[in-house]
Every structure is written in C-alpha cells, then in structure tokens.
Amino acid sequence: MHPQILNLKSDFLIRCMLTHLSISNYALIKELEIDFREGMTIITGETGAGKSILIGALSLILGQRADAQSLLDKQRKCVVEGTFSIKDYGLKDFFEQCELDYDDTTVIRREINPNGKSRAFINDTPVNLEQVKELGEMLVDVHSQHKTLTLQDARFQLAYIDAYVGHDKLLADFRNDFHYFNRLKSELAILSEKEKQSKADQDYYQFQFDELNAAKLEDGEQEAMEKELELLNHSEEIKSNLAKATDTLSSGEYSLMAMIKEVSNILVKAATLHPALEDISKRIEACHIEVKDIAGEIENAEQKIIYSPKRIAEINERLDTIYRLMQKHRLNSVKELIELKDSVAVKLDSISTLDTKIEELKKEITAREGKLNELSTLISKNRKKAKTQI
User: Fold this and answer.
1) 93 and 200 part of one domain
2) d(CA 182, CA 254)
C-alpha cells in the first residue's frame, strides 16, 4: 500500500496515509468532511481560499499547540479528527509502549475549548500532546520549499538502512528483549520501593505479631471463659440452692422420697387385695426411683461446683488480655484477632522473601543486558557495513 500524496499548493506537499479529515469550528471552517483515496490528491484554489487552513487544522492532530483565537465561534469548541490507515507502518510497538489500543484504522482527535485548553485522543483514549506529536511524525511528512524533513529525520535514515540490510528478525529480537528488559527494570524499581517501605514497617509488624502470638489465642475461648466466670461468680448461691433441693428430695422423715416410698408401700399392700391397683403401684415405684436418681445428680452437681477466687482471677486476667487486644486493634472477636495475626505473619514472610526476589531479578536484568549488548553490537555492525555500501 502506498501513501497518498496530498498537494495543497506549490509550497506544501504532504505525504501520509490519511483517509478522512473532519474539521469543526476552525478558522473559516464551520464544518468540513473530506475523504481521501489512495494515490495523489491535489487541492487547488485562489490565494486566501483556505488551503493553508487545512494545513493548520491537520497540524493540530500532529501535535501543534492550540490557540483559542483560531476558533470560528468563540463559544463552541473546535474539533479536528483524522483517520489514518496504518496497517503497513509497523506501529504496534508504539501503541504497546503507550498502552493504547491498536487498530489498523487509527483515529487521532484534537479538541480545543473556548478557554484555550485542549485535549487529544488516539482511538478514543486520552493522550498527552507529546504522544500525538510522536505518532504524527511517523504518519505524516509535511514538505515545504527548500525543506525535506524525512531525509533529515534520524529514524527515517535508520529505517532505510535497516530495510537495505534486511535484518528484520534481528531487530524484532532486540525490540522484544528490550521491552522485556524495561519491564524487568520497572519491576525491580517497584520491588525496591516496596522493600524500602517494608523495612520501615517490619519492626511494627514484628511487634504486632509477637504480641498476638504470645497471647496464644484460641477461637471460642472468650465465650467459654465468660460462661465459666458467670458460674464461678454465683457458685455459692448455686451450691446453696442445690443443697436445699437435695434436702427437700432426700433428707428427713418428711422428704419427698420418703413420702413417695410410703405411698408406694401402701399401694403394694392394696394391690394384693385389688389387682387393678398393680399398675399404679408400679408407676409410683418408678417415680421413687426417678426422684432418687435426680437427688443423686443434684448432689453430684453441688459437689462439683467449687468457689475458687484463684480461678476467677485467672479468668479475669485472661479476659482482660483479650479485651485489650480487641480494643487496640478495633476488632470484635478472638477469631478476628487470630486472622489478624495470620495476615501479619504473611506480611513478615513477604518482607523476608523480598531480598531474594530482588537479587534474582538483578541477575536476570544483568543477563538480559548482556544479550541486548550482543544484539545491538551485531545490529550496529550491519548498519555500518550497509552505510558504506549506500
């Protein structure tokens, strides 16, 4: 595909792959849409017809600084948009470096507000003016009298020599390795900054971890100790009530068990005379056995409850530690404290491995740099040889 030549007048010649130009509210132009076909396009007209205005509008999307005075309507913004066919220009690396979406049909747009501020876009992504200018120089050559810009451009000269040499694969290898080399350097810079910050935080994280680890926290222990403390604080009252219940059930001549036993004996005698009462007699005997068992369990429970000021002090001290840690770290449970300890442990481990990662990265960067030097030496040798031949 050959770039079209746009000849505007005798002292300007534009070489580009411009396929469409849209101009709105610029100089004398209210609205203008122009489509360009492949080959040469010549625009003619009398002096003052506006041919140079097209150059001015085109220069805006090539990175020239904007001027609010160039607006036709000072209350509206000016928009200039150019569509370029860049399939054969080999610009994917440029788009990748600038983190832009590549498309074989690329649109550059420039907007100028009435206050003089401007914005630039490449494929609808906001970019700075330098990026627009850099891309524009690779897409458009503007030739004026006594001036041949392309021949003076170092990138054009290198591209010509490289095309003559034909070492495209070598250049591609160098380009790929160079991009990877830069990514490694960026990663190293990030890791080094992270290491610097991490070292500053390491003492704090270590203190935090040691404090939480020393507490030997267990999930659920807070609730269990609070229940135990409640029991211990009321142990004397509970023991007294259980003792009364035991006395009522089994102690004395008029205890519940004694009375049930007396009723049981009466029904046993009556059942010998009246067989229909045998079932009732068995039921009352079962009640006696059940009450006896209950009385035994109450007595055992009463004996197990021991008032212990020492244990109360231990529990209070443990709960004070837990409450203090929860308040300090603004957490609501032992489980959250344990999770915090584990996360701090991960941070400390990450800090300890940063040094190793940085050293490994430095070694890889050195190795990549050596390979780049070999490739660049070979490329330079090829270019110097071709330069002599050219």
Assistant:
1) no
2) 98
Paired strand residues for 71:
26
The C-alpha atoms of residue 318 and residue 326 are separated, in whole angstroms, by 13
User: What are 310's two structure tokens?
Assistant: 């020492």
For the entire predicted model, the pTM comes to: 0.46
233, 138: one domain: no
CB neighbours (10 Å) of residue 117?
Answer: 11
Are 178 and 302 in a shared domain?
A: yes
* Entry field: residues in the chain: 390
DSSP E strands in the chain: the ranges are 4-9, 12-16, 18-26, 29-35, 40-42, 78-85, 105-112, 118-122, 125-127, 140-144
CA angle, 342 then 345 then 346, to 5°: 90
158 and 137, same structural domain?
no
**CA 46 to mean position of chain CA atoms:** 60
User: 290 and 239 in one domain?
Assistant: yes
Q: State how beta strands 4-9 and 12-16 pair.
A: antiparallel
Domain count, the chain: 2
State which residues form the domain around 45.
4-148
DSSP label at 73? Answer: S
Whether 185 and 205 map to the same domain: the answer is: yes
Q: What residues form DSSP beta bridges with 33?
A: 22
Residue 82 is inside which H or E element, if any? strand 78-85
pLDDT tens sequence for the chain (390 residues): 345 545 554 444 445 578 899 999 988 888 999 988 877 778 887 777 777 888 888 888 888 887 778 888 888 999 999 999 888 777 888 898 888 999 999 999 999 888 888 899 999 999 999 999 988 888 887 766 555 555 666 777 787 888 888 888 888 888 888 988 999 999 888 888 887 777 777 778 888 888 889 889 899 888 988 888 888 888 788 878 888 888 888 776 678 888 888 888 888 888 888 888 888 888 988 888 888 888 888 888 877 777 778 888 888 899 999 999 999 989 899 999 999 999 988 888 877 778 788 888 999 999 999 999 999 999 999 888 888 888
